[in-house]
Design brief:
The chain is of the alpha+beta class. It contains 2 helices and 5 strands, in the order H-E-E-E-H-E-E.
């Protein structure tokens, strides 16, 4: 019984510490890719600008003008893109 409780506790800690678990997502059309930001237009014409690193910027370029899902993290009030994915 003690090992089961310890296993559950370790699993909860691992889930809580993972960065993907805290990522939020936005679904929309990729309008613009700048040096350190990307601009997205949501389904209700909402515009959102998300900061992006150089590696993720290269990953975003093929989706320009297409509908994508952007996973981002809120870091001290600033959104930073973590990953881009196809909407299909």
């Amino acid at each position: 019984m003690r090992n089961l409780g310890l296993g559950i506790l370790v699993a909860l800690i691992l889930v809580g510490a993972s960065g993907v678990g805290t990522a939020e997502e936005f679904f929309g059309k990729l309008e613009r890719v700048d040096l350190d930001t990307v601009t997205l237009r949501g389904p209700d014409n909402e515009m959102i600008v998300v900061r992006v690193d150089g590696g993720n910027r290269r990953n975003a370029a093929p989706y320009l003008g297409k509908t994508v899902i952007v996973y981002f993290q809120n870091e001290q009030g600033e959104c930073r893109a973590v990953r881009f994915g196809s909407s299909r």
